[in-house]
Every structure is written in C-alpha cells, then in structure tokens.
C-alpha cells in the first residue's frame, strides 16, 4: 500500500467513524432523525467507498454505482436541505413532523437517482446545480456560525466556520478543478474531501450540542431569592 492509499484509507475511516458515532448520537440524544440518518448515510457511503478502494474495483462494479448514487443523494439534498432543516431545530427550535422527515429523504432518494452518473448524461448543468445548492447551504451555515458566536460558543463557531470553508472548497473543486499530480481516481482530492466531510460532521454535531444546551438554559426558569421554592 502506497502512502497515498494509506492516507485515503485513514481519511475514509475517520469520516466513517464520525458519521456512525454522531449519527447515532443525534438520534439517541436529540431525536434528530434528519441529521442522524444523514450522518449514517454518509458513513455508509464511506464504508462502501473504502471497500471499493481497497479492492480496486472497476467502474463497472456495483460498489461504484452505489458510491455514485449516495454521493448524488447527499450533495443534492442530504448535506444541503436536510442539513439546514436539521440545524434549524436549534437555531429556530423547528420541530419537523415525521412527514417532513420522510419527504426530505424521499426527495433526496429521487434526486440521487436522477443525478446518478450525471458526468456522462447531464454534465455541466448538474455540476452547476450542486455548486448552487452548496452556496445556498453555506449561506445558512454562515448564519449558524454567527448565532454560535452570539451565544458565546466562539470555539464551536470557529471550528464550524473552518469546516464550512473547507466544505465549500471541496464543492467548488469537485467537478471543476483537477489537482496537479492527482491520479485517475482523484485520490489526492478524496483524501482532502473525506477528511473535510468528517470534520464537518464532527464540528456540526458538537456545535449543535452546545446550541441545544444553550437553548435548554434559556428555557429553564430563573430562581431568585424572592422566588418561592416548592418542597
């Protein structure tokens, strides 16, 4: 195994571990099924991608098709609309219904199918759609960072900002820039991309947790010396 392949494996394992760990935590601790399931989907995609890379399977492999589908799923609706709706549960105390949860994932599923193999079919319009979706999501994430800063969670705000900036750079590079010296499988790009996606899931979960704790403190009744305390 070359150094490049080793770094790819480490980056992928990092993303998979973060996705499964914090996806489960989102569901167990906050009943946030939007972010929890999306994190798990990303981790599942990473697991498939790791096996595909280690086996050096070709583009005719079912694992390649699965990777392409899950990639389109998350880039179109998953780490865009679903991410925004999920984070709004702390920024706006938004409580989506089960119908909204199911509808969002159904929409992502359809989008994944329509955009599957877009490089060979739709081409540039699909690539532009992905970057526009990311830009709109980045605008909301900038607002999320601003709110974190305003409530005093400045460390989380900085890490969320770094993760968001790196995520935008990955999205802007994905279909438009080839890294000099990279191979046909874009291994160097994916080392950076997988590391970034893991960082995003890690930073956003921790920021979400801090925001949720802040909301809990603000909702708690204030007890003063003049306030009677029941037995």
From TrEMBL:
UniProt name for this protein: Transporter
Keyword Aminoacyl-tRNA synthetase appears in the UniProt entry: no
Superkingdom classification of source: Bacteria
UniProt KW Glycoprotein keyword: no
Membrane-spanning intervals of the chain: 6-24, 36-55, 67-87, 99-118, 124-145, 157-176, 188-208
This protein's UniProt keywords: Membrane, Transmembrane, Transmembrane helix
Taxonomic source organism: Nocardia halotolerans
